[in-house]
Amino acid sequence: MIELAHPWFLALAGAAAVWLWLAQRRSLADLTPAQRRVCTMVRGLILLLLVLALAGLRLLLPSREVAVLFAIDQSASISPAAQEQARAFVAESLGSQHGSDVAGVIGFAAEPQILEAPLERLRLAESWPAPANRASTETARALEFASALFPVEKTRRLVLLSDGNDTSGNLTAAAQRLAANGVELFTVPLRNASAPEVLVEKVNIPQRLKSGEPFDLTATIRSSGATKAKIKLYQNQFLVSEQERELAAGTNEFRAPNLKAEGSFASYEVEVIPDSDTILENNRAQATAALRGEPRVLIVDTDEARARPLADALRSAKITVEARGTVGLPRSLEDLQQFDLFMLSDVSALQLGRETMELYRRWVQDFGGGFVMLGGENSFGVGGYYRTPIEQMLPVRMEHEDRQDTPSVALLIVLDRSGSMNAQVEGQTKMALANQGAALALNVLQPKDYFGVLAVDVRSHTIAPLQQHPSKSPVEQKILAITAGGGGIYIYTSLAEAFQLLRDNPARIKHVILFSDAADAEEKNAGEIGETGRGGGSSLDLASAMVSAKITTSIVALGAASDKDTTFLRQLADRGNGRFYLTNDATSLPQIFSTETMKVTQSSLVEEPFLAAPATASALTASINWAEAPLLLGYNTTRSKPTAELLLATERGEPLLATWRYGLGQAAAFTSDAKSRWASEWLSWPGYGQFWAQVVRGLMRKSDAGSFQVTTEESADRLTLTIDAVQPDGSFRNQLPITVNAVGANQQTVTKPAVQVGPGRYAVSFDLPELGTTIFNVSSPDLPDGGHIFGRTRSYPREFLSTETNEPLLRQIAGSPARYEPAPKALFARPDQSTLQRRDLTDWFLIAALLLFPLDIWLRRRTWATP
To answer: What is the pLDDT of residues 821-850, one digit of tens each?
Structure first.
């Protein structure tokens, strides 16, 4: 049989014949008739060969050649002995390979990878590389990957060597697709040697609990044989019970009766410690539950003791309160979910970090939490919250309008632009993050202030001259464009240049912020490396001289306390009468720069007595005699956002208490404090406790009123939520706009709408991570009484759940008994039916045409005898 790849080129054959006939008729060559006939035939044959080459003439020949691809399970559930078993099977199979057969080997776990050059005659390498992630078995993905490697002209055979414990959940469908594409699937079970194994399969608690109500916890523990074990139970990470048990072979049930939980969210973990075991990853399992009961409030203050008056006042109003220092800052959604309102009092943004601030913002927006920021010398703008997720959530802005009663400032920022600043941090260079900090500092300043930026390596580069900048945008763009390069920063050169620029500046406050790598601060003394041309002495002496000229210096060091230049930079900040910041997290640089600028300008703190003035009627401030309210002694200056509700103001009209709704929750800013510094006279005022009780009750998350009933069904890595929405009288709620927010252990939020699938019934599905707790919030804007919050925990990847070979699944996907656990030599056996193999003749036609071309020339030039 033959076929043409480009049959339309055959049309050229007719055109070539006409051209050849015309050329022969009009030729002026002196050829004999016989010579002309022979030459015309040769030339015609050349043209025919070229046309057939263009048309892609191919022969279809029967073939019984075989292509075999081995897919080897390399996941964590495969023991080293089983992996050697797979390698030996492949090696024995290759001994039966015929000369025209081809073979290849891929390995797979979470991702497939090529182990041996695909579809060639193989000589196995001495060892195969292990996959980067062995915590899952994505068999379906491996089959799809393998099917793309096969040639189409041979009998295709895929050999799966696995324990059959697939975590993809769609292996059967992948096997059916292989069969539909003509790929023969063989399965070879890999069997681990018998070993003792104990695992916690599941922990069960009610999905919704009532605070203080007793309930039973049960756990399913599976053991490969009889053994002794110690079983521990943890509640919210605290050990609550421990007992010794005799475990029988098979399934064992552990029960903890009459447990009680308090708060809004609880987690329980069961750990088993057997006498003998093989896999440790599956010895713990966890479950989470949301609680309905008394609302809880969390107060975090820099000084936990100074938060006690506010906590006591709320407790007197029958509100459950927990007060913590900064070491107790919530760092996970599970911790936050225990509370309905979070009050952050006088805590710097530098103690939170951007990731934690983003967590708080999402908790309010997606889970309806209440948030209040209280003022202080480490709060709002001076605390480094300018342009952070916290500021985004609050109803006030940190920047302030120009005020004539604050002194003018001359701020010079010196940035280390050495080569080490090219290092990447979360997709940005260290230099870019420092640039953002300098740009934030510029935006904090008022138009009357002076601002300049120097970028320094072995010399100083002026990025922004030290002057007033009425238009900040062009300067900001220049700062953000600074790139790293060159050697380490020259400290003495930097300070000498800063001294010269600031000495004669007319500003009342003159300050330098020097940013340096703590491991690469060079030229500590004049002339230490090169000719400085600025006199002698050390950088420390120069900083002291600058203080004498009323110029202060703060240092921002990027690195660790153990770095070689950290001590020197700390001393430099002391000599410069400034502050020293040390961080190994470059993403905190923008907050450090804005914090330091706010402290220098002294314009975000007002420490003078004032009276609280009601601005807008609200339930939060009602029934309080504000005319009798004592003085407050200070506050942080802010500006209300356009849609915020300004409830209390200062005598200057600036926000004292502002609130607004943010997503599903509410956020508030109280710019004074609630402790003995600025609110010292309020602490004995009878309205103090009433005011804060009303604020807290008005802003805290609304309790779940039972508008939703949620059931879940987990299949592989997919969780399906079925939501029933009913009226208090039992009738269905139809056509509700229901949204489900899911926040996983990686703190990423996924939001999906639920689709109505029946009367009052809605459904939505989510992908679950391999491990960790995912918090779900089911809510609707049509139901302001609160949503339904619950958690789903996966304690370890499903890879560690099944420890025995799943032979029934391997038999099923093989499709026939002959393809399950075949003999190695059977894989390269000649197939009963042959395939059609294409042999392309294009190259042969071109070779023949090239060989005939010189023959055509020779025939034309040869003198033929006249008959």
So the answer is: 999 988 988 876 666 566 677 888 788 888
Does residue 673 surpass a pLDDT of 70?
yes
Q: Which residues pair with 227 in a beta bridge?
A: 247
Q: What is the pLDDT of residues 116-161, one digit of tens each?
A: 876 666 678 788 888 888 888 999 999 999 988 888 778 889 999 9
What CA–CA distances, in Å, run from 387 to 301, 428, 812?
22, 18, 58
pLDDT confidence tier of residue 532, bands split at 50, 70 and 90: very low
Task: Specify whether the CB–CB gap between 687 and 627 falls below 8 A.
Answer: no
Instruction: Return d(Cα 7, Cα 15) in angstroms, integer.
Output: 15
Euclidean distance between CA atoms 661 and 395, whole angstroms: 9
Residue 521: enclosing H or E segment and its boundaries? strand 521-522
CA distance 100 to 120: 10
Residue 309 reports pLDDT greater than 50: yes
pLDDT, mean of residues 272-297: 86
CA distances to 24, 109, 113 from 30, in Å: 12, 77, 69
Task: Enter the tokens of residue 669.
Answer: 């800013």
441: which residues sit within 8 A by CB, 6+ positions away? Answer: 411, 413, 451, 513, 593, 594, 596, 597
| Other CB atoms within 10 A of residue 579 CB | 18
Helix/strand/coil for 270:
strand
Nearest to 289 by CA among 257, 254, 262: 262
**What's phi and psi for 385, nearest 5 deg?**
-90, 5
**Among 159, 167, 174, 156, which Cα is nearest to 72's?**
159
Q: 747 pLDDT band (50/70/90 cuts)? A: confident
Return all residues near 76 (Cβ < 8 A) that are at least 6 apart.
Answer: 109, 134, 135, 279, 281, 799, 800
Backbone angles phi, psi at 688, to 5 degrees: -60, -55
* CA dist., res. 95 & res. 91, Å (int): 7
How many CA atoms are closer than 13 Å to the CA of 582, on its beta-carbon side? 16
In the predicted model, what is the mean pLDDT of residues 703-711?
71
3-state SS, residue 19: helix
486's torsion region: left (phi>0), alpha (psi -120 to 50) or beta? left
**Cα-based distances in Å from 393 to 291, 563, 644, 645:** 26, 37, 11, 14
Task: State mean pLDDT over 460-472.
Answer: 91
